[in-house]
Amino acid sequence: YFVTAEQKQQVEEYKDFASRKSDLERTELQKDKTGVFTGCYAKNPANGDAIPIWVADYVLASYGTGAIMAVPAHDTRDNEFALKYNIPIKWVVKNEANSSDDAKQVYPGLGIIENSSSSETGLDINQLSSKEAGLKVIEWAERTGNGKKKVNY
């Protein structure tokens, strides 16, 4: 797995701690989310950004692959975790109805895409609607070999 030698003991201790929790305890919305940094980073293929890899108790192994790319600007649980551990937050969907005072509040809905283009990767979706941007990202991922369209129920 992805962990540096410096973080190995912390990650092992955390895994032992988190493994004693039930799925119900891990998904309680009001609970304090915990986690530990692995010391490693993943590269976002869409923009080249380094994304810190964390082990966290609110991500369930039974959900998808058991790994997620957190979106703290647009998911309440991810936002709480990011704020607690000072993980940078990048807003990528703008709700046009928000005032400037609300602009940095968690927003899980559809809107206009921002901060999401990279000349390096050839992905340019800024100023598109969420739906249109989603289709362009799928096309880009398939064209570049970074992913493929798949429907899950």
Structure description:
This protein folds into two domains: 5-85, Valyl/Leucyl/Isoleucyl-tRNA synthetase, editing domain (Isoleucyl-tRNA Synthetase, domain 2, Alpha-Beta Complex), CATH 3.90.740.10; 93-144, no CATH class. It has four helices and six strands; from the N terminus they run ααββαββββα. Helix content is 27%, strand content 16%. The chain is an alpha+beta fold and 153 residues long. A two-stranded antiparallel ribbon has the order 1-2. A two-stranded antiparallel ribbon has the order 3-4. Strands 5-6 form a two-stranded antiparallel sheet. A hairpin with a 4-residue loop joins strand 5 (117-118) and strand 6 (123-124). It has helices at 8-19, 23-27, 76-84, 130-144; strands at 35-43, 50-56, 93-94, 112-113, 117-118, 123-124.
List keywords for this structure.
single chain, 153 residues, alpha+beta, Isoleucyl-tRNA Synthetase, domain 2, 2 domains, two-stranded antiparallel sheet, 4 helices, 6 strands, globular, leucine--tRNA ligase, nucleotide-binding
Task: Please give the structural blueprint.
Elements lengths: L7 H12 L3 H5 L7 E9 L6 E7 L19 H9 L8 E2 L17 E2 L3 E2 L4 E2 L5 H15 L9
Antiparallel strand pairs: 1-2, 3-4, 5-6
Short description:
By secondary structure, this protein is of the alpha+beta class. 27% of the residues lie in helices and 16% in strands.
